[in-house]
Write a sequence for this structure.
């Protein structure tokens, strides 16, 4: 079997890259994933999409991705509802330092055309009345941030890419990449061998290992982040509520359930995706402190998933030092919301076209000189 | 029997018709139909629909029932209010 390009990873990044390549006319695109669709990080994510970031690149990636989501249902001509809602993100400031940093973020975001704004405590309470006013000082708010169903968004890209001729093989694991004289020759899976000179690494939590198959060292690692979901109830909270200081993100999805997560206290670098009682307890304490009205809500399920983290918490989207080996990894928990731009930008790089935005700052070689990179602090 | 009138997952109001449509699209495992249709994601966590869905999968894929994978069971065993969890955690610390 031959392919013009092999994409490893059929999560949101992989399907978006496949769709964008096919849309621009590339043929013979083959996608492999060792699991069912969304079995990895995509299907385990918190389903939020936001533009309120602290670095220019993250702001631009997010803003242009939201513009795609706004018309994704039509462009992809999907037969189910992708459940896109734009009811905002409200990020609370707990300390004076946070408030100051958030004001700087808003200046950056507004300069890039993102309609975020500063809210006093009273203004924040108008939008989310059940916030505990003793637990925060002020907030920032962006009304066009929101929510999207990760499974159905992936399925929408998948269907659209298939119509354009992309071949998908789920439940098929790539076990080796043959490289000779700095050129990719072949991709070997547990079921077949594929002759190709181009490979995309969109393997999410396993991006580092897939890089190793090709002899490419990528400075990323994975850590377990956990989430829980409650029973569904009538709508009572419009925006996603985030606090970095309290360590929580919490939103009510259109279906009615509340989804909430937080960062681990002692993150380990590994592929653990288990659920822990420690998370459940910490999450419950934090949620009922910041949003006391949620105390009566029943938790029905919890799970874990991998954040594939880069050293500066910004994505890696570039060719690697191995020609024809392309990287879309290190999203640090935000691969889902950036996926439309990931697909567009990487397809432009692969097809040797000028990129829609200047993304030299997302090149993997930026880590050779860490002083040059901007560190994203707005991460839960 | 009208498939649109048969509810296969009562927590999430999923009909037999929706399930069969999903099979036709190529999604024939519990994990896949769970993610597309939200089957088994409600308060009962598939305690009610699991076997019903497995039987449908077995029939569609022409496999014996014992060859059809069951769903992944995640915590919690039953729904527990956030407030109770927080209170217990605080009392311990």
């Amino acid at each position: 079997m031959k392919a013009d390009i092999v994409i490893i990873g059929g999560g949101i990044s992989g399907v978006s890259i496949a769709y964008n390549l096919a849309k621009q006319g590339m043929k013979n695109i083959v996608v492999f994933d060792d699991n069912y669709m969304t079995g990895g990080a995509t299907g385990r994510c918190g389903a939020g999409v936001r533009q309120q970031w602290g670095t220019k690149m993250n702001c631009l990636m997010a803003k242009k991705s939201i513009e795609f989501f706004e018309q994704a249902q039509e462009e992809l001509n999907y037969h189910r509802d992708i459940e896109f809602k734009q009811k905002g993100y409200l990020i609370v400031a707990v300390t004076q330092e946070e408030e100051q940093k958030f004001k700087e973020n808003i200046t950056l975001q507004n300069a890039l055309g993102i309609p975020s704004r500063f809210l006093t405590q009273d203004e924040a309470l108008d939008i989310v009345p059940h916030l505990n006013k003793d637990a925060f000082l002020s907030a920032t708010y962006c009304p066009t941030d929101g929510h999207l169903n990760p499974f159905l968004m992936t399925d929408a890209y998948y269907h659209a890419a298939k119509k354009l001729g992309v071949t998908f093989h789920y439940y098929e694991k790539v076990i080796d990449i043959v490289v000779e004289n700095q050129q990719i020759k072949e991709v070997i899976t547990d079921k077949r061998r594929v002759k190709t000179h181009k490979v995309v690494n969109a393997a999410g939590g396993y991006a580092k290992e897939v890089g190793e198959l090709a002899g490419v060292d990528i400075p990323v690692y994975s850590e377990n982040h956990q989430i829980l979901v409650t029973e569904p109830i009538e709508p009572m909270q419009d925006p996603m509520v985030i606090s970095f200081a309290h360590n929580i993100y919490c939103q009510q999805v259109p279906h009615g359930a509340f989804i909430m997560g937080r960062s681990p206290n002692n993150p380990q670098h590994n592929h653990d995706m288990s659920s822990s009682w420690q998370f459940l307890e910490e999450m419950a304490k934090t949620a009922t402190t910041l949003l006391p009205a949620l105390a009566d809500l029943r938790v029905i399920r919890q799970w874990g998933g991998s954040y594939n983290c880069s050293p500066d918490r910004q994505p890696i989207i570039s060719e690697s030092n191995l020609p024809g080996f392309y990287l879309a990894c290190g999203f640090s928990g935000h691969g889902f919301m950036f996926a439309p731009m990931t697909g567009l930008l990487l397809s432009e790089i692969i097809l040797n076209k000028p990129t829609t935005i200047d993304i030299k700052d997302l090149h993997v070689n930026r880590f050779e000189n860490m002083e040059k990179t901007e560190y994203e602090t707005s991460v839960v | 029997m009208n498939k649109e009138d048969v509810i296969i997952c009562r927590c999430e109001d999923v009909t037999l018709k929706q399930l069969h449509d999903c099979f036709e699209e190529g999604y024939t495992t519990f994990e896949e139909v769970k993610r597309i249709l939200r089957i088994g994601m409600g308060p009962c966590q598939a305690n009610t629909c699991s076997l019903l869905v497995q039987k449908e999968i077995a029939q569609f894929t022409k496999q014996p029932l014992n060859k059809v994978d069951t769903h992944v069971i995640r915590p919690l065993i039953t729904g527990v209010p956030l407030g109770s969890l927080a209170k217990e955690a605080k009392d311990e610390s």
Remarks:
- The CA atoms of residues 51 and 70 of chain B lie 8 Å apart.
- Chain B touches chain A at residues 29, 31-32, 35-36, 38, 41-43, 45, 74-76, 79-83, 85-86, 88-90 (CB under 8 Å).
- The first helix of chain B runs from residue 16 to 24.
